[in-house]
Design brief:
By secondary structure, the protein is mainly beta. It is built from 5 helices and 24 strands. Residues 1-39 and 41-55 have low confidence and may be disordered. Residues 128-363 form the KIB1-4 beta-propeller domain.
């Protein structure tokens, strides 16, 4: 695993991959002629620690997990920012790998950056809260699977050869923790999302414009058949911005005149893909013919409108109240800035990324607008 520093970002500390020399340890003054028992005990302690009293290199590989190694691991796992560091530390020595447990760690608060030829098998992830990023080489996985998407800390893959079954890969451990019987459909995919408890994959297609979903028990079907056990579409509507939020999946549905609505699932009430339904949560024709986006920010689900002359002096951001099924204008987004497009929307703190302007919406086609003060 290769670690890098993002421009204008907080530098990350590298993980030692080779044995390094330790600083000489200061010892307490001893008598000129210590008794034999004391001399033997001192030599035994130095030998077990892998270092002599002259300050020779510490034998890091001999460290056991029940000592400082375990405490370091606990500190790293206490903050998801260092989940990648913990995973890298387990790979340094065989003794560390066997002594440190392999917990269910994910890159939940990270986003995957663009990857392309010639290094299509290298995936770079950015930690939004700290501006740290890490590049992971998945060449051994890329030989058998093709990349579909990244969501909620896992990579969605599909077999290159028939029957093109789906896998969820943890990029830190490089293990397929979840395997699906269902295969990836032969449609022009727009975006993919993953929800957990139960684990389901949702796929939004360009044409036909619909959302389909499967779980681990969804049976395999021919790639040209209707995909999954559930599908959702609205005639003459495009489905965009599929967004997991509080255990449900939300999306924007807009008709040919860009009059929109928010649709959502009922996953929390169901445990099988075959019984999941989607329905309209909120319609908002009063907002006119606009383009709409969904953004998760500071624990809220927000509806963001495209800037236009028709909206001069009107709110551009609304909080989605999923309980009362209503929209509430937002007057201030603080130090946050939004990046929005139909595939993925993110909120970042401009205190971490000082080159961005607070209170701005950056649109996917290159324009930005200062919308809130």
């Amino acid at each position: 695993m290769e670690k890098k520093n993002a421009p204008a970002a907080v530098a990350s500390e590298p993980v030692a991959s080779e044995p390094v020399a330790s600083a000489p340890v200061a010892s307490e003054p001893v008598a000129a002629e210590p008794v034999a028992a004391e001399r033997a005990a001192a030599e035994r302690v130095a030998s077990e620690g892998g270092a002599s009293k002259r300050g020779a290199s510490v034998n890091w590989a001999s460290l056991s997990a029940d000592g400082p190694l375990h405490k370091i691991g606990q500190c790293l796992l206490a903050n998801e920012e260092y989940a990648d560091t913990y995973s890298a530390m387990r790979q340094v020595y065989r003794n560390w790998r066997s002594g440190l447990p392999e917990p269910d760690v994910h890159l939940n608060e990270w986003i995957m950056l663009h990857h392309a030829l010639p290094r299509v098998a290298e995936f770079t992830f950015l930690q939004l809260g700290t501006s740290r990023y890490v590049t992971i080489d998945l060449s051994e996985v890329h030989t058998r699977y093709y990349f579909v998407g990244f969501c909620r800390g896992v990579i969605v893959l599909a077999q290159k050869n028939p029957p093109h079954k789906i896998r969820l890969l943890n990029p830190l451990t490089k293990k397929s923790n979840t395997m699906f019987e269902a295969q990836m459909p032969s449609v022009f995919l727009k975006s993919v999302a993953v929800i957990k408890s139960p684990t389901m994959i949702f796929v939004a297609a360009h044409y036909p414009s619909e959302i389909g979903w499967v779980d681990e028990s969804t049976p395999t079907k021919d790639i040209n058949e209707d995909w999954g056990e559930g599908r959702f579409s609205i005639k003459n509507h495009c489905l965009r911005c599929i967004t997991p939020f509080n255990g449900e999946l939300y999306a924007v549905a807009a008709d040919n005149f860009e009059i929109g609505r928010i649709v959502c699932t009922n996953v929390q009430l169901q445990q099988r893909a075959s019984t999941v339904k989607m329905e309209t949560l909120i319609s908002f024709p009063e907002l006119g013919r606009q383009k709409f986006y969904l953004v998760k920010s500071d624990g809220d689900l927000l509806l963001v409108l495209l800037v236009s002359e028709a909206l001069a002096g009107k709110p551009l951001v609304y909080r989605v109240d999923t309980q009362s099924r209503s929209l509430h204008p937002v007057s201030n987004i603080g130090s946050n800035a939004f990046f929005v497009n139909y595939i993925r929307c993110i909120s970042v703190d401009t205190r971490v990324y000082p080159t961005l302007r607070p209170g701005c919406i950056y649109y996917g086609f290159g324009l930005y607008q200062r919308v809130l003060s």
